[in-house]
UniProtKB/TrEMBL annotation:
Protein name as catalogued: GTPase Der
Biased composition (Gly residues): 464-474
Organism from which the protein derives: Qipengyuania oceanensis
One Gene Ontology term of the molecular function aspect: GTP binding
CDD domains according to UniProt: EngA1 (cd01894), EngA2 (cd01895)
Superkingdom, natural source: Bacteria
Binding residue positions for GTP 1: 9-16, 56-60, 119-122
Annotated positions binding GTP 2: 197-204, 250-254, 315-318
Similarity remark: Belongs to the TRAFAC class TrmE-Era-EngA-EngB-Septin-like GTPase superfamily. EngA (Der) GTPase family.
C-alpha cells in the first residue's frame, strides 16, 4: 500500500489547489469562496518521482458537531487516522489566525508527522506569515505557491525523510488502471459504478451503506456533495461468496438547468458529468417519496447519450407508499420516456436498511458484461441475413436500398457498422428495427447500441448529388 499524505487546514488556504498540483490534474473543485470541499478526496500523486496517495479534506471550522461544518470537520479528523504524513497548510499572506492555532493544537495530539506548508508565498507578500508559522511548533515551514508550482522541490525535501522509504516500496511498473482505461481489449478491471440523480435522493447515504462506514458526508441538507468522489471497495456477492472489485463514484445532485445559477453548482454538475464519462455502469437513483420526474429522464438520457450502461434504483423503499403501483408506474414511464433503450434494469433499494443493494450490484456486473460484449462475425451476419429476410428494407421512390453486411466496430458501448448502398435514403424506423433486433437477439439487453451506416463513395459522382458517405447512430 502506498504512503498516505493528508492535506489539512482552515477554509480557503489553497488545499484543493495543492491537491490538484500534486496529482497533476484538476480533480478537485476550486473556487475563491471558502468551504468548497466537503468530502475527503483521494488521488495518486507523484512528487519528483516519489509516488504516494494524497487526501484532500474539507476546511477545518470551529462549529457545533451536528452542523454541516461540524460534520465536515469530523470527516477531516477521521482521515488523519492511518495517514503517514500531514501537510498543514496556512495562507502566508493572511498570517496565522486563531483557527490555525486551534488546528495546530489538535495536530500536536495526533500520532502523525506534520509538514508545515505556507501557501500563497509567491512574491514578498507572504514573508510575514512564513515567519509567524515558526511559532506553531512544526519546524521550518515550506514556502509554496500551489497555484504557480513554486516551492514544490522544497516540499519533496520535507516529505522524503517521512515517507520516502514507504513510497519507494509502493512503486509499480506504471501499468495501472488509467493506462488501460480506453483499451477495449484490456481485461475488465474494477467495475466503475457512478451514482447520479437529483439532490437529496440519498446517493452518498447509499454508498455509505455499501461501505459499512460513514465515508461520505451526509445530512438532511440538499446538495451536500460537490466533488465527484471515487472510493475503491470490494463487494462480496452473498449468492456465491465471490469477491469483486468496485470503484464507487458519488456525484453532486443534478437540478434542472434553469435552477442552476451559482458558479459553484455549475462546476459541481460539470464534475458529475465527467464522472459519468469515466463510469462503465451508471445508477440513476430516484427518491421513492417523489417518484419519477422529468429531470430524472433528462439525466437518464444524458447517461445513454454518453454511451454508458444505465440502471435505475428507487431509494427510500422502506418508506414508500403504494409500493407495487409506484414500481409499475415508474417502469411504464421509463419505457415511454426512454424509447431508445427499453427495459432499463429497475430496482427497489433502501440506503438506510441495505435492502436490494446486493441484487442491484450483481445486475450491474451482468450489465457491464453486456456493454463489453463482442459478437462473433459469423453469428452477427447470420442474424443480419435473418433480419433482412424477415423485414426487407423499403424501396423509396422505387429505388432499392441494398444492405450488404454488418460488422462490430467496437465495444463499451457496442458499436456496429452497416455497409450498403443508398443508405442516406434508409428511414429512421428501419434503423430502429436493426438496433432493437441487435439488442433483443444478440444479448445486449438494455445497453446503448450505436449503429453507423456507410455507403461506398462513388468515384464518378464527384460529390454532385447521390451516393457519398452517410453515417447515423441510434
Amino acid at each position: 500500500m502506498s504512503a498516505q499524505v493528508i492535506i489539512i487546514g482552515r477554509p480557503n488556504v489553497g488545499k484543493s489547489t495543492l491537491f490538484n498540483r500534486l496529482v497533476g490534474k484538476k480533480l478537485a473543485l476550486v473556487d475563491d469562496q471558502g468551504g468548497v470541499t466537503r468530502d475527503r478526496r483521494m488521488g495518486d500523486a507523484f512528487l519528483a518521482g516519489m509516488p504516494f496517495t494524497v487526501i484532500d479534506t474539507a476546511g477545518w471550522e470551529d462549529d457545533d458537531p451536528e452542523t454541516l461544518p461540524g460534520r465536515m470537520r469530523k470527516q477531516t479528523e477521521v482521515s488523519v487516522e492511518g495517514a503517514d504524513a500531514a501537510l498543514f497548510v496556512i495562507d502566508s499572506r493572511a498570517g496565522i489566525t486563531p483557527l490555525d492555532e486551534e488546528i495546530a493544537r489538535w495536530l500536536r495530539q495526533q500520532d502523525v508527522p506534520v509538514v508545515m506548508v505556507a501557501n500563497k508565498a509567491e512574491g514578498k507578500a507572504g514573508d510575514g506569515g512564513i515567519m509567524d508559522a515558526f511559532a506553531l511548533g512544526f519546524g521550518d515551514p515550506v514556502p509554496l505557491s500551489a497555484e504557480h508550482g513554486e516551492g514544490v522541490a522544497d516540499l519533496f525535501d520535507a516529505l522524503w525523510p517521512i515517507i520516502g522509504e514507504k513510497a519507494e516500496g509502493g512503486q509499480d511498473d506504471g501499468d495501472g488502471d488509467a493506462a488501460g482505461e480506453d483499451d477495449e481489449d484490456a481485461p475488465l478491471g474494477p467495475l466503475k459504478l457512478a451514482i447520479v440523480g437529483r439532490p437529496n435522493a440519498g446517493k452518498s447515504t447509499l454508498i455509505n451503506q455499501m461501505l459499512g462506514e460513514d465515508r461520505l458526508l451526509t445530512g438532511p441538507e440538499a446538495g451536500i456533495t460537490r466533488d465527484s468522489i471515487a472510493v475503491d471497495w470490494q463487494w462480496t456477492n452473498p449468492a456465491n461468496g465471490e469477491t469483486r472489485d468496485i470503484r464507487l463514484i458519488d456525484t453532486a445532485g443534478m437540478r434542472k438547468k434553469r435552477n442552476v445559477v451559482e458558479k459553484l453548482e455549475k462546476l459541481s454538475v460539470a464534475d458529475a458529468r465527467r464522472a459519468v464519462d469515466f463510469a462503465e455502469v451508471v445508477v440513476l437513483l430516484l427518491d421513492a417519496t417523489q417518484g419519477l420526474e422529468h429531470q430524472d429522464l433528462k439525466i437518464a438520457s444524458m447517461v445513454l447519450e454518453e454511451g454508458r450502461a444505465l440502471m435505475v434504483a428507487i431509494n427510500k423503499w422502506d418508506i414508500a407508499e403504494n409500493a407495487s403501483s409506484l414500481f409499475n408506474g415508474i417502469r411504464e414511464a421509463l419505457n415511454e420516456g426512454l424509447a431508445q433503450v427499453r427495459g432499463v434494469p429497475l430496482f427497489a433499494v433502501s440506503a438506510r436498511t441495505g435492502k436490494g443493494i446486493d441484487q442491484m450490484l450483481g445486475a450491474a456486473f451482468e450489465l457491464r458484461d453486456s456493454w463489453s460484449k463482442r459478437v462473433p462475425t459469423a453469428a452477427l451476419n447470420r442474424w443480419f441475413d435473418d433480419a433482412l429476410e424477415a423485414n426487407p428494407p423499403p424501396a423509396p421512390k422505387g429505388k432499392r436500398i441494398k444492405l450488404r453486411y454488418i460488422t462490430q466496430a467496437g465495444t463499451r458501448p457496442p458499436r456496429f457498422v452497416v455497409f450498403g448502398t443508398r443508405l442516406d435514403m434508409l428511414p429512421k424506423s428501419y434503423e430502429r428495427y436493426l438496433v432493437n433486433g441487435i439488442r433483443r437477439e444478440l444479448g445486449f439487453d438494455a445497453v446503448p447500441v450505436r449503429v453507423v451506416l456507410k455507403s461506398p463513395k462513388n468515384p464518378y459522382n464527384d460529390n454532385k448529388g447521390g451516393g457519398g458517405n452517410y453515417s447515423g447512430s441510434s
